[in-house]
Amino acid sequence: MKTEDVPNFVALYKGEWYTKAQEWLAGKGYTLVHHDKRWARTRIPRQSCIAVGYSPRYVTRGHAVIYKRMRPYWDVHEDNTFLRGAVWDFYTLRRI
Fold it and tell me: What CA–CA distance (Å, rounded) separates 48 from 67?
């Protein structure tokens, strides 16, 4: 799926982003799989994933970006600053 086809669920739905993302993905035959913080701190999956951590723009806010092959791949912000510090969580896609 193309990044430009994916809605910005956090901006659109704030506290409901996870539920809305799961509903949208289910319609496309996918589900999000959450990986706990211990897993996220020790390795980055080889497949593409959503990485969540601190925003480089706002000290107290989180930010989500796409990682591909263990490297930052896509950031919605044009400056491509990705994340500040350690990644908190990862979400991968799985076919349902």
Answer: 5
